[in-house]
Each structure stands twice: as structure tokens, then as C-alpha cells.
Amino acid sequence: MSSTGAHLLSLKVMRVSRPSVASAWEPFYSSSPSFSAHSTTSIVSLQGKTALIGHPKTLRDLSHVTEMLMLPSSFGAIQLGETFTSCVSVNNEANVPVEAVTLTVEVQTASTKTVLAEFGGEGQQLGPGESLERVVSHEIKELGQHALACTVSYRIPSSTRASTSTDGIDSDMLVFRKFYKFAVTNPLSVKTKVHVPRGPSALLSREEREKVFLEIHIQNLTQDAMWLDRMHLECAEGWQYQDANMMDSGDDLGNESMFSGSMALMQPQDMRQYIYILSPSQRAVFPVPHQPGTIVPLGRLDISWRSSFGEPGRLLTSVRAL
């Protein structure tokens, strides 16, 4: 039985995410008598951790960053490849116990419906003021509008329960649903270009003329910086690749990516360019040329990153073709 009236149970949903650094603006008075007196005494007076009385530090406080952390007020921005984690809580707001509490949580998109959790059941009872909480997670793999659908069912107390309906339907079972909508955006722009050797000298060499140069452009489309953890090309069957983005580290550690270390940090709208050199894993003595219009799969990209607060993200692109 579904009811549109007031229910004995309430449902609360909160996204589990890392906080952000709160900011607060403070004015800086360069003509302050206190500042002038302090600055004439010592040229390094502004380098300490303690601000002048009533006046902030120049470099630290003009950034508006405080020592406080701020929790998100809404679901916030959710990117493709991230793991959406939410805490779902069913609370008994009445002064009587309820029985057979069941909660079903699912994520719905335009094309799919995925059940994340289903807990409770006939033996689940909630007394006055008690709650039933679970943490659910889901890896986001589609763009567009998503909805977190929560269905709660419960049975009213036996003391106020009416007689069972003659048609076999439990008239004392109440059900209500709530939907929490959020949009998923693309964190990265991935563009590819395919180049093949066309020079006369390259065409004379069987090894060189069979090479394929895969050029990849990756751009950070988010409003925050991200740390690019891993960039890997998974070759299609029949291909092998050479990573042209590696350079000699100058020590015993061997080669390292030119985008490692501080270069792995991508600010908003930053772009990275990668080059991979592909060649057939087995070279035929008489290679068969591809017919015009034939789609030759080369491979797909496996990209992993972390947000400014360490939240992981992963994007597996579609297969790139020749």
C-alpha cells in the first residue's frame, strides 16, 4: 500500500565527500599606523605567523584561505569516473515502534537502473528515535542526469493495525519513495589524432611504414586542480606500442614520464599532449593493405587521477581507431 500522507519514518540522504577549505575575506590596511610602526622596526616583521593586532598578513590573508574546513551544502559537482558515496538514514520520528522496515537504494539513468543496496526486512524493527543507516557507493560510468531512488516500506504498529484485507494485500504496509537528482559532467576532454608515415625514406622501410603515431590531447574541464596519477594505453589485439612520453631520469630509477612529479598537477583548463608509437606485434612478409573505409581498432586509454583532496577518479575511453 502506498500512502501520500504523513509517515512515521523520515529519510535523510547525505553525500559522503571530503570538505573544502573555507575562505573569508579580511581587509588589509597598508596605511595603518600600527603597520607602519611595525614595518619600520623590522623589514622581516611580516614573515612571522602572528598577524599584527587587527591586521592580517599580506601574502597569507589576501588569499582568503582560512584554517577552517567547510562541508558541502549539496551533492555538488560529480564527475564521470568518480565513485559516488552516500549515507542513507531511515529515522523513526514517531513515539511508537514500527516493524518490517525495508530500504532499497538504486541509481537510475536514462538507460540503466542499478540496485546499490537493499537492507532491513520482516525482522527489522525501529523503536522511537532509532535509525537505520547504511553507506552505499557507485562508480559513475555514464554522463547526464542521474537519480538516487530510495524506497522505504514499513508496517504500522500492531496495536493500531487494522484487519488484513480479504484480497491478500497487506493494508498495514506503508511505502514511500524519494528521488535525489544530480548531473554528471565530463572531467576531461580527450581528443586523438592518428598519423602515419608519409615521407619517402619511411616508405622504403617496412618497419617504419607500418608504424602509427597516436597523438592524444587531454584537457582538465573541471574547476579544480587534479593530479594525473596514471596514463596508460591498452592496445587492441595485434598491436604493440612504444611510450614516447618517457625520458631518462638521470639516476638508477630508469625512465620516467615527462609529466611526472610537479608536472602531473593539472590546473583548470590545462592541457597535456601525449604521443604513442604503435606497430604490429607480428610483421607479415607480405602485409595485406586495409580496404578504404575499414575501421582498424588501435586501443583505448585508461586514465586515473586524484582531486585536490585526494578523491580518486578513473576514466576508460572508447576504442580509438585508425
TrEMBL record:
Residue ranges annotated for the Trafficking protein particle complex subunit 13 middle domain, each copy included: 188-318
Occurrences of domain Trafficking protein particle complex subunit 13 N-terminal (ranges): 7-184
Cellular component GO terms held in the UniProt record: TRAPPIII protein complex
Source organism superkingdom: Eukaryota
Name of protein: DUF974 domain-containing protein
Organism in which the protein naturally occurs: Rhodofomes roseus
